Amino acid sequence: MREEIGHRTGNADARRKIVLAALQLYCEIGHNKTTVSDIARHLSMSSANVYRFFPSKQAIEETVVGEVLEETVSAATEAARTPGPALRRLATILKAIADCNEGRSAKHGRLQDLVALAVRQNWTVVRAYDDRIRGLVRPIIGTGQASGELRGGSPMALTCCLLQAMDVHLNPSWAGAATLRPSFEKMSRFCLDALACSPSLHAGMPSHVRLEAAG
């Protein structure tokens, strides 16, 4: 039993060293220029040894992207614990995600290129990340609806609408892009205002229009 545990621990340590070496090289020279041989050389091991723990370079890249996105999830999770009304908590989550992307783009642009590629190609780790972010946002919207702070509707549908509308600031592919877009502050305020429950907004509408707007 001890030998089996020690073997598993050794494998985990080796995998971790490979991922950290790849992460460093991706930051320094980019994922396109980094080969498995480079990673092996960095660790003073053979390429065959690297392949014992990862079946391909793609598998290493996916693990690295997963670790990078985990940092964003951690920041968003911490932001979700912010006390206060739902709109404030949502704003804090959105800002945390945007700051992670912009900070990574500024400090480690080559690594951000890999994350952006993973997003564009919809890798499995990216889909899992998206699910976790939605899982953070949805219950806050539900809580805001229960308190009367936010408009009615499916919490999941509103979650998806909010994140999609904010995609230009939340998607790693856009980080650092020189493109015409509203500032984060303006876009987040627009989106969060749309979520807020404002009875006066619908006061002058015909009843059937109010029902459609509320749904």
Automatic annotation (TrEMBL):
Annotated DNA-binding residue span(s): 35-54
Keywords tagged on the record: DNA-binding, Transcription, Transcription regulation
Coiled-coil segments: none
Keyword DNA-binding attached: yes
Keyword DNA-binding: yes
Domain HTH tetR-type: 12-72
GO molecular function, one term: DNA-binding transcription factor activity
Pfam families: TetR_C_27 (PF17935), TetR_N (PF00440)
Entry protein name: TetR/AcrR family transcriptional regulator
Lineage of the species this protein comes from: Bacteria, Pseudomonadati, Pseudomonadota, Alphaproteobacteria, Hyphomicrobiales
